[in-house]
Amino acid sequence: FLLSPCISGQQIYYFDPTTMAFSDVLKTRIFNIYCELNPLRTDCHWPTLSTFDPIQQPMSRKLRIAVVCGGYTREKTISLKSAEMVMNNIDRERYDPTLIKIDNDGWAAIVNGAEIPVDKNDFSIPTNDGKISFDAVFIAIHGTPGEDGKLQGYFDMIGLPYNTGGALNTALTFDKFTTVSILRSANYPVS
Question: In this predicted model, what pLDDT tens digit does every residue of 137-159 receive, in sequence order?
Fold first, then answer.
């Protein structure tokens, strides 16, 4: 599945059949095409909460990052490996990461090997002294609910920035038939 080089200058973007995913840059372009084709939609705006630039953030303290992994599909195993890679390589001088596992058993923070339930009202972790809140979320879930817009919509509602595209463009690009239909209707060559 090769998209035309006219999508973004001279860059060519590929659909990766092994992961069944598009790049975030391509997701953004598909979102723009969708909005151009549907100018009266009120949800066609750039979600301001989904863009998080840690370089622009004041660094008076380490930023608390929730690294979210797991999911509700067979891709959970890959997600756990992705999250492990993030946890092993994140700059701990700048960030204070916490692993959050979301699966059929619930939402839990993994702290010192123990699972602590996440308060879904504000995505915090209750402690004896109050609660731990996060500055941003790194979504490392493959499949639902991390690649289909569900988590993004949740984080938008509670005002927590995250690393992926917004709820609408991830939902649109999660369904490959919808993605191809949108591209085809905008006269982009697809196969």
Answer: 999 998 899 888 899 999 989 98
